[in-house]
Write a structure and sequence with these properties.
The complex is a heterotrimer. Chain A is mainly α. Chain A is built from ten helices and no strands. The chains are: A mainly alpha, B mainly alpha, C mainly alpha. Chains in contact: A-B, A-C, B-C.
């Protein structure tokens, strides 16, 4: 067995084990951390496939950003874990059965012949070959259209996130400098024109008003 | 390698490019003026769509043109479907303005997300590559998830959005998995090249292709909302604000149809006999379940949701009868034409039916139950007549547009010797007619429960009336639209 | 190509060892006799008032998701930077490849401006 194969099985074993722990962990924070471990190992497997850019992107985007988001979400929700997990053991046999059937079927249909390591072309990459550059050469020429579409999807995601979660706070004490600067005199100051000399009410009138009450 | 690059031709994609730039412009308009002038964003959105329509007509060449590294296709089918999409979205914007305003939901983002969803539909309609199909689907779905949840205070809407999102993500996964199988077996993401590779396959890749096909059909089934991938439809239709339901139930059907044609007919025509069997199963179960479940509903939105399931099943019947056993594909063009006509007829009637709910609802009142339609004839005879037209068209009663759509599909089935299926479809259409006619009965023969006059804008009255008259008139002259569909498909496929 | 990453592998292994070995050694060599008081949460001599987990504000989520989106944008910039020299040297893609990235960034700047104008980036 080559060193690469050893590494593959190591990464794969840790990946599967940590993925299992993600769904079985009692504490959601632990589950997120196991997911991080799973991503690291998946990135290792991609590295073995010479897909260095994807491997790094996986670590950067998923471990660096998505998992932080997951952590926030876990901390945001006040979930009673026990109630979520109720019925886990009841559903487990059915889930296992369906999963096993799926795996067996897929293995039976596809088998060793079409997707084994021998069936797929092995592009042996020499030192100095850069996966990232190859990707760039395609991405910024032939794949320009999907590339721009990706940015539109990201734009929609920003808008959707702001629409769905942002709320204006009424009680905020933050200064809005733009508004402060745009204030004109008329907004703050009201000049009331009054007679400069006002006649004092006569005593009789005050007395009759008192009497009316 | 970079030196072989040829600058792509931007002209065929002009509508998409324009819509994107105009949407970004509208976004800024909304940021600057949106808070004070609420009317600006919907007006500008309608203008943007009309500009796109103008450009689409002007850039239509007739022969298919590929650009952007053969990922984008502009043919007559895409032009035709895009125009229909603009029409549907414009109608949605006009119908929904009053409803959203009464609920304080008429934020600029509502219209912006609809425009982005429209862009996603256009991308799907013009996709010539698995990757662009997928990106179009994602752009459309992402906007739709956000639209369903746009009423943040409503727990029902949030739950619907959550359900939609989770099931939608699953369906995208299925679709993507199927696409990866196709790519693995043929070595290309290009639909044309996939078709070519599929026609000269060794037996080995045959299995992989079939396997991928199953997942593709599952993904398509979800986007169309047919049994057994229909679970999201009733909950989302009922839970979403009615204006959003109207949107989901109309224009995206065109995009889903285009996606089906691109993936199955353009890409996997070699395997037509296989996917036809799958579609037939989906269609038959959808027609049965949709019609039976709709009878039990008292909520009008939910009833229309089940009716949507059965209608999409009906449309699939047409797609499933294109190629005869033995590989004779002479009826294919007629079959796909009738499917396209069916989608057009359905979307027209669906726009009107949800439009009626929006017409009757007002601030604090949803008008989504069947009982809310009681005695509509006494309150407004004209709109009761419109609702009658929509219901008759949905039920397939002659001579409305829905009748000819059903008729075309059924005659295709008989012509391709699917007589038993045709009989089955007729029986369930008759069962289905019951719940549509029940709405008519409630409108005309029951006493009204509330007598408040209808208070909606002139624009909505006008468009809804035009919509109703279109359903009635297209029923009288079905041949025109039919030959348009046929022409578009003939020049495209 | 993988040879280039051999130092990374060594680094990962050394890093893991550096983190795990002291913990394991402590566990193996030291005495391990937990009791109820020892394992309870420590809070300056008095009983803990509440659980260590507290609910976060939803605003963290908004910031995090905006961060992810721009993080993804950076991920797309990376291959572009790697072949930037090639792009500028090839007459066929010089303009296209350059403008394309600016369109991409431009679309995202629209989103950025939107989030900013809506006050989604403000904390208080």
């Amino acid at each position: 067995m080559e060193f690469k194969t050893v590494l593959f099985y190591l990464f794969a074993a840790v990946l599967v084990a940590s993925a299992l722990r993600v769904v079985t962990a009692r504490n959601p924070v632990h589950a997120v951390l196991f997911l991080v471990l799973a991503f690291f190992n998946a990135s290792g497997i991609w590295m073995l496939l010479d897909a260095e850019f994807l491997a790094i992107a996986l670590v950067m985007v998923y471990v660096g950003a998505v998992m932080v988001l997951f952590m926030f979400v876990v901390m945001m929700l006040d979930i009673n874990i026990e109630s979520v997990r109720r019925g886990f053991w009841n559903y487990l046999p059915l889930g296992l059965l369906v999963g096993t059937i799926l795996v067996v079927e897929m293995a039976a249909v596809l088998g060793q012949r079409y997707f084994s390591l021998d069936a797929l072309p092995n592009t042996a990459a020499e030192a100095g070959y850069s996966n990232t550059k190859e990707l760039g050469r395609l991405l910024y020429t032939d794949y320009a259209y999907p590339f721009e579409l990706a940015s539109v999807i990201l734009l929609v995601a920003i808008i959707a996130a702001v629409v769905l979660t942002h709320r204006e706070r009424k009680d905020t004490k933050a200064q809005k400098i733009g508004e402060q600067l745009a204030t004109r005199r008329d907004d703050r100051l009201r000049i009331v024109s009054m007679a400069s000399v006002k006649e004092a009410p006569s005593v009789e009138k005050a007395v009759t008003e008192e009497g009316n009450k | 390698m970079l030196n072989n690059f040829v600058m792509p031709d931007f002209n065929p994609a002009m509508p998409e490019i324009l819509l994107l730039s105009m949407t970004c412009g509208i976004l800024f308009v909304d940021l600057i003026f949106g808070a004070r002038h609420r009317w600006m964003v919907p007006l500008l959105s309608v203008v943007a769509l009309l500009v796109c329509a103008f450009v689409t007509v002007n850039t239509a060449i007739g022969d298919p043109v590929l650009t952007f590294g053969n990922m984008f296709i502009d043919d007559l089918m895409s032009d035709f479907l895009k125009l229909l999409t603009y029409v549907a979205v414009v109608a949605v914007i006009i119908y929904s303005r009053g409803y959203m305003k009464a609920r304080g939901l008429d934020k600029g983002e509502f219209y912006l997300l609809m425009l982005f969803a429209t862009l996603g539909m256009m991308v799907m309609i013009s996709a010539a590559n698995l990757l662009t199909i997928y990106l179009g689907v994602e752009l459309l779905s992402l906007s739709q998830y956000a639209l369903v949840a746009i009423d943040r205070k409503s727990t029902r809407a949030t739950e619907a959005a959550m359900k939609y999102f989770v099931l939608g993500a699953l369906a995208s996964g299925l679709l993507l998995y199927g696409m990866s199988m196709l790519y693995g077996a043929t070595g290309s993401l290009q639909l044309g090249e996939i078709a070519q590779a599929a026609s000269q396959q060794s037996t080995g890749n045959h299995t992989v292709l079939l396997f991928g096909l199953v997942f593709l059909v599952a993904g398509i089934g979800f986007k169309l909302g047919v049994v057994p991938f229909h679970m999201w439809i009733p909950d989302v239709y009922e839970g979403a604000p009615t204006a959003v339901t109207l949107f989901i139930a109309s224009a995206p059907k065109f995009a889903a149809f285009a996606m089906t044609i691109r993936l199955l007919v353009t890409g996997m025509f070699e395997y037509a006999e296989h996917w036809q069997t799958m579609l037939l199963i989906l269609a038959v179960s959808s027609i049965a379940l949709g019609n039976l479940a709709a009878i039990a509903q008292t909520n009008f939105k939910r009833m229309l949701a089940y009716s949507a399931i059965s209608h999409m099943g009906f449309m699939l019947l047409a797609l499933a009868s294109g190629v005869l056993a033995g590989g004779d594909h002479s009826p294919a063009m007629a079959a796909y034409t009738s499917a396209m006509y069916y989608v057009v007829a359905y979307v027209l009637s669906s726009l009107g039916s949800f439009g009626m709910i929006l017409l009757l609802s007002r601030a604090g009142f949803e008008a989504e139950n069947l009982t809310d339609f009681k005695g509509l004839n006494k309150r407004s005879p004209w709109f009761a007549l419109m609702a009658l037209i929509f219901m008759f068209s949905m039920a397939g009663i002659p001579f409305f547009v829905g009748f000819f759509a059903k008729f075309a599909v059924l005659s295709m089935l008989v012509a391709t010797e699917h007589t038993a299926t045709a009989v089955f479809a007729v029986i369930f259409s008759l069962i289905g007619a019951f719940y549509y006619l029940r709405v008519v009965k409630v409108m005309y023969f029951d006493a009204p429960q509330d007598n408040l006059p209808l208070r909606v804008g002139f624009d909505m009255r006008l468009v809804l009336s035009v919509n109703g008259l279109a359903v009635a008139l297209l029923g009288l002259f079905p041949q025109q639209v039919m030959s348009l569909c046929q022409f578009a498909l003939l020049r495209s496929l | 190509m993988l040879e280039n990453y051999f130092p990374v592998l060594v680094f990962v292994i050394v890093g893991l060892a550096f983190g795990c070995v002291p913990l394991l050694l402590g566990r193996l060599l030291g005495p391990h006799r937990p009791d109820r008081e020892k394992t309870s949460a420590y809070e300056c001599g008095f009983e803990a008032f509440e659980e260590a987990r507290m609910q976060f504000d939803i605003r963290y989520y908004l910031i995090a998701i905006i961060f992810i989106l721009f993080d993804l944008e950076i991920a797309f910039l990376f291959p572009w930077a790697a072949i930037f020299k090639e792009i500028t040297e090839s007459p066929a893609v010089r303009t296209f490849g350059f403008v394309e990235m600016f369109v991409f960034i431009g679309i995202l700047v629209v989103g950025y401006a939107y989030a900013w104008a809506k006050g989604a980036l403000d904390w208080e």
